[in-house]
Amino acid sequence: MTLIVLLIGAYLLGSIPFAIVSSRLFGLADPREYGSRNPGATNVLRSGNKAAAAVTLAGDCAKGWLAVWGAAALGFDPGAAALAGLAAFLGHVFSVFLRFNGGKGVATALGVLAGIDPWIALAALTTWITVALTTRYSSAAALAAAAIAPVAGIVLLDGRLPVGVLFALALVLVWRHAENIRRLKAGTETRIGGGKR
User: Fold this and answer.
1) DSSP result, 60-114
2) I need a labelling partner for 50 at 20 to 30 A (CA). Which of 1, 38, 57, 67 fits?
3) Closest to 113 (Cα-Cα) out of 122, 100, 126, 103
4) Given this model, what pLDDT does residue 193 score?
5) Contacts from 118-123 at CB under 8 Å and sequence distance 24+?
6) pTM of the model
7) d(C-alpha 189, C-alpha 14), whole Å
């Protein structure tokens, strides 16, 4: 029962849509109405407001990290803490506040990785930056980072549950980027800094 309460709390934390909160704070249009229509930091950046995008990124990362850190602080074992991170991630992707719609989950996943193991987060972030700078495709960078995280987890983590959480994160991220993958193949994907559609 205690674990169930933890997971529900983590899910609700993850459901907070920082893209929409920051957009309203900065007087911007709803990010679901332009660009990729995704309530995430990359799409908020397409508004041209870097501060709003930074607030979105920080908030989405923080809620993933806080779910894992909070679970550990409450005395839960690493496996349960990783599950709390997964719950927060799923909250972002299927936000109860957005009628179970949400963002792609990249920033929140990074926060979860940081909570589970900072070295895994660093590996994923380095991969994202490298691919993003090389291709200027946020989606390609996210997919590459998603692929590297479980591999790093196998090397660095003890226990099957935390590693299983990393694979679950990666699978959901790939699934959420299915349309991006199709656009990448077709050569129609929007590049970082490409502005509104």
Assistant:
1) HHHHHHHHHHHHHHTT--HHHHHHHHHHHHHHHHTBGGGTTB----HHHHHHHHH
2) 67
3) 122
4) 62
5) 119/152, 119/156, 120/149, 120/152, 120/153, 120/156, 120/157, 120/166, 123/148, 123/149, 123/152
6) 0.91
7) 27
3-state secondary structure of 189: coil
Q: What is the separation of C-alpha 71 from the centre of its chain, rounded to a whole number of angstroms?
A: 19
Residue 157 in tokens: 């983590």
Give, for 184, the enclosing helix (H) or strand (E). helix 178-186
Q: How confident is the model at residue 194 (pLDDT cuts 50, 70, 90)?
A: low
Q: Where are the domains of the chain?
A: 2-186
Residue-wise pLDDT for 84-127, tens only, equals: 999 999 999 999 999 998 989 999 999 999 999 999 999 999 99
Q: What is the pLDDT of residues 58-80, one digit of tens each?
A: 999 999 999 999 999 999 999 99
Structure tokens at 170: 């990666």
